[in-house]
Amino acid sequence: MPDGLFMFFAALTLGAALLLVLSRNAVTSAMGMILALVGVAAEFFLLDAYFLGVLQVLVYAGAVMVLFLFIIMLLNTDDPEGTYPWKTAAIGLATFFLLGAGVLWLFHWSGAVPKTLAGPTPPELTVNPAEFSTSAKSFGRLLYTKYLLPLEIAGFLLLVALVGVVSLSKDAKEDNA
Amino acid sequence: MENTSLAHHLILAGLLFVLGLTGVLVRRNLLVVYMCLELMLAAATLALVAFSRFNRTMDGAVLVFFVITVAAAEVAVGLALIVALFRRRGTVQSDALNTLRD
C-alpha cells in the first residue's frame, strides 16, 4: 500500500482532472486544470524533484493557466446547452475504461514493472556522471554540459514563439491600410 | 515514500493521460480540448520524473525541464491561433468548424 500523502495527492489530481474533462463551464475546467497541475507538482515533491515541482507551479499553474483564463474570459464563449449525443458519450466512456484497464494491467498485473530495484547495476551505469540529486545546482551542471545544445535550441524556440505570437495576433486589416 | 513503488506513479500518470485523451476526444470547446492536451503532457512528465527518480539518474528530470519549456512556448502559439480563429469565425466550438468537410 503506498503512503498516505501519495494517495491523497493522486486522488486530488485525478478528481481535478475529472472536473476539467466533465465541467460544462470553461472557467471551472480551468480551475480543475490548475488543481490537477498543483497535484502533479506535489507528486514531484514526493519524488524528491523539488526544483521541478517549483517550476511546475510557477510556469504551468502560474503563467500558462493565467494565459488560459485570460483567453477564456476574452472570448467569453459558452458551451451550447443540451447533453452530448450518446455516440460521443459512448466513445468517451469506452476510451476511458478500455485504456484505463490497459494501464492497470500493464503497470500492475503484467509484471512488466519491477516491484523493487533489486538486481545488479549494469556495468555501463556503475559510473554514473549524473546521479539523481535534489539540488538545482545539478540541473545547472547538466544543462550547461551534456544538454547545452538542447538548451540553446529551447531558448531559440522561445524567441520564435514570441515573434510568431506577435505576428499572429496582429490585425490582418492593418496590413492592407 | 518507501511503500510507494514505481508502478504506483506509472498508474497515476497513465490514468491522467487517459483522462486527458478522453477529454480531447469528447469535448467540443477548443480551449478545453487544449487544456486536456496540456494534461496529457503533464502526465508524461510525471512518468519521466518517476523513472528518473527510481533509476537514480538525472537525465529524465532534465528532459522534463525541456518539456515544460516547449509546452509554455506551444501554449502561447496555440492560444494565439485560437484567438485568430475566433476573430475570423466567431466561434471556438470544434463542430462548427467544418468548412473543409462540407
* Global shape of chain B: elongated
Total beta-strand segments of chain B: 0
- For CATH, the homologous superfamily of the domain at 1-79 in chain A is named as NADH-ubiquinone/plastoquinone oxidoreductase chain 6, subunit NuoJ
- Mind telling me which CATH architecture of the domain at 1-79 in chain A this is? Up-down Bundle
Number of domains of chain B: 1
Taking all Cα atoms into account, the compactness measure Rg of chain A is 22 Å
What is the C-level CATH assignment of chain B?
A: Mainly Alpha
Biggest sheet details of chain A? none
Termini Cα gap of chain B: 55 Å
Low-confidence stretches of chain B: none
Q: In one word, what is the shape of chain A? A: extended
Plain-language structure description:
The complex is a heterodimer of chains A (177) and B (102). Chain A is mainly α and 177 residues long. Among the domains of chain A are: 1-79, NADH-ubiquinone/plastoquinone oxidoreductase chain 6, subunit NuoJ (Four Helix Bundle (Hemerythrin (Met), subunit A), Up-down Bundle); 133-169. Chain A has helices at 4-22, 26-46, 50-75, 86-109, 136-143, 148-169, 172-176. In chain A, α2 packs antiparallel against α3. Chain A is extended. The termini of chain A are far apart. The mean pLDDT of chain A is 84. With 102 residues, chain B is mostly helical. In chain B, α1 (6-26) packs antiparallel against α2 and α2 runs antiparallel to α3. The longest helix of chain B is centred in the C-terminal third of the chain and has 31 residues, at 59-89. The termini of chain B are far apart. The relative contact order of chain B is 0.12. Chains A and B meet through α1, α2, α3, α4 and α5 of A and α1, α2 and α3 of B.
